[in-house]
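$ run holo --ligand "molybdate ion" --emit tokens
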Amino acid sequence: MIGVSEASDIINGIKLKIETEKLDISETVGMILRESITLDRDLPPFDRVMMDGIAIQYDKWEQGQSVFPVEGLQKAGGPKQVMDGSGHCMEVMTGAILPGKTDTVIRYEDIEIQQQEKETVAVIQKSPKAKGQNIHPKGTNRPKGDLVANEGMVLSPAEIGVAATVGKTRLNVSRVPEVAVISTGDELVPISQRPLPHQIRRSNAYTISAALRELHMEAELFHLNDDRSEISKRLDDILKKFELVILSGGVSKGKLDYIPGILEQKGVEKLFHKVRQRPGKPFWFGKSEESVVFALPGNPVSTFSCCYRYVMPWLKKQLGISKRNQLMAQLTVNYTFEKKLTYFLQVKVEINDEGIMKATPVKGKGSSDLANLCKGDGFLELPEDQDHFKAGESYPLFLYRTL
Ligand SMILES: Nc1nc2c(c(=O)[nH]1)N[C@H]1C(S)=C(S)[C@@H](COP(=O)(O)OP(=O)(O)OC[C@H]3O[C@@H](n4cnc5c(N)ncnc54)[C@H](O)[C@@H]3O)O[C@H]1N2
Ligand code: MOO
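-- output --
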């Protein structure tokens, strides 16, 4: 039986084919950009007024003029006007293009608008600091043609904003393959159905597909009963159609645990079966020419921890998302686990005043107790070569919840 890091290395050695698709910009946050974004115009694209007030010719102020007849109004969104009269001013609004024949903007707070006879005038109360003040000159953020987002970046709302400003209605992003998520077992009924006393609802497929949604991946759900010929026939079709297949259940020692045997018969090469870990020991992983197959142990917490410890980090790596270091969290209490297995301890995580992640165990009733997952935020990976884990020690953390 192999250990957790060996299992993880084997999985990480397998590559998934990632293609490119063009999507509406509003669907792309969190995806990987597959093009570079350059500016189609200067930023800002015109000399932009930065304050509501008036625009003047600075020279006139320097020559001693402090009362300026108001010639008109330059609104944001209005085409550029050109000031007509020498020594006049224009009222200007933030975001407007600077009117022609003006070069300095003075805020309303620093002037007074007065009615003198029939004329509206602006009287300057506070000296402008310099020629050109309160104007954001064309191209001073960035010039046209500047590279603003690189291929391979994870699209955050910042890149979405930049893409929108250059008029990209659609973006090229990594296409994540469609995934088959398969639950197995005669005891499982659809979640819409009322189970008989000996039955339960198929929750695992929903857990896995919800996790995949975090990566914008769509899953098609299947269910296989514990029937050799049914499993064999349906797996044929599924393996042909899907590059990534995630099963849950049917991988341990039971008489009806047919999954590993049938997968191998179908030409899916076993890369490992069983990992020195709890939960999730009977985890099976393999690969055929067309598909990568994760067969996760059926107990809901085992499926869950294998999904977050192996499947999700591997997918992030394939997509180019995981650039950060492994998260770590400090135990808040002493903990003992004496088996020679890596233990995935369910924990509630808090970030303390120094920004350090603190993990407190949330005790459940074992690997079938999926309700306990709602009390925690993630799993702490406690290494197999240690039995006693002390408060204050840090261990790798696998989060399933945004903190
Ligand atoms: N003789 C042995 N028996 C078992 C071993 C072992 O080493 N020797 N390992 C145990 C461990 S550890 C686990 S984990 C389970 C995993 O077994 P399977 O992967 O074969 O899973 P099943 O037997 O099909 O199911 C286990 C359990 O989980 C429930 N389940 C399964 N699928 C779902 C689903 N989609 N949604 C909700 N719940 C599900 C299922 O009803 C069972 O109660 O094997 C131990 N046995
Ligand atoms: O791995 Mo099993 O998950 O210990 O119940």
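-- notes --
The chain has a mean pLDDT of 95.
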